[in-house]
Design goal:
13 helices, 4-stranded parallel beta sheet, binds D-glutamic acid, 2 domains, about 45% helix, Rossmann fold, 6-stranded parallel beta sheet
């Protein structure tokens, strides 16, 4: 078994993570799958996010990926554990699925001086309480304040995130977060779409608050994981290739994807069968 690293997201957001992975670990092959036909996931039920994510993970395994990264906080929050505990034990024991929440939670405490951290994410991620739970395991003394930002993914997906309309919703959610605790000095963007809004967010928060995107954190954690797991490192093929799959229109995907990935993207259509 030897194949590309699979990278999954509901749509485009995971490309901000893939961008950092390919920058740090360019030697590997990567196969990206965006479930654009069913995005956004952020407002969907646990059952839907689990069913959709599972289908996409199986698709990436079928395509030869030994390792799949859920580069989506919503999928990591709502589907990862069930896939790891229920589905993986029935499969080839060498296959692995990793998420983005734990690696981020394990380092976020290193960014704050006040010990008060804000987390912004989709409604699904925030309601799951995954960040407070995971952060509490490594940094039990940290105060974690959360805010769901349901309008941000639609703004970004419709390429309206740099326009004046975005200011209203950026200000709204950021103020709601800071109203909960004014001493927050670190804001974690707990959704892989949000790095595209980072500049706008910076305009609406006090200068001493730092904004943390997770792409570089997840890439560094993948590097560390591959160092610690030589059998998986050998199973990841290394021709430096990048392939992109979408469950929706490829022309639309290619137009939007380059904004997230930072360079040109040429995708292929991929149909997702319903897996029992
Ligand atoms: N990019 C995904 C995340 O990190 C969510 C986008 C969506 O709502 O589908 O949570």
């Amino acid at each position: 078994m030897n194949g590309p690293i699979g990278v999954f997201d509901s749509g485009y957001g995971g490309l901000t993570v893939l961008k950092e992975m390919t920058a740090l670990l360019p030697q590997y092959d990567y196969l990206y799958l965006g479930d654009n036909a069913r995005a956004p996931y952020g407002t969907r039920s646990f059952e839907s996010v689990y069913a959709y994510t599972r289908e996409c993970v199986f698709k990436l395994f079928d395509a030869g990926c030994p390792l799949v990264i859920l580069a989506c906080n919503t999928a990591s929050a709502k589907a990862l554990r069930t896939i790891q505990q229920k589905d993986l034990p029935k499969m080839d024991p060498r296959l692995r699925v990793l998420g983005v929440i734990r690696p981020t939670a394990e380092v976020i405490g290193n960014y704050t001086s006040t010990g008060k951290v804000g987390v912004l994410g989709t409604r699904g991620t925030i309601l799951s309480e995954s960040y407070p739970i995971e952060i509490g395991k490594t940094f039990p003394q940290l105060e974690v304040h959360q805010q769901a930002c349901p309008m941000w993914v639609p703004l970004i997906e419709n390429n309206e995130h740099l326009g004046a309309g975005a200011d209203y919703f950026v200000k709204k959610y950021v103020n709601q977060l800071l109203d909960k605790e004014s001493d927050i000095d670190t804001i974690l963007l707990g959704c892989t779409h949000y790095p595209l809004l980072a500049d706008k967010i910076a305009q609406h928060i006090p200068a001493q608050i730092s904004i943390v995107s997770q792409g570089e954190i997840v890439a560094a954690s993948l590097k560390d994981y591959l160092n610690r797991h030589p059998e998986m490192e050998h199973a990841c093929s290394k021709d430096g290739s990048r392939r992109f799959l979408t469950t929706d229109d490829t022309t639309t995907f290619d137009e939007h994807a380059s904004i997230f990935f930072g360079s040109e993207v040429k995708s292929e259509f991929c149909s997702i069968p319903h897996v029992g």
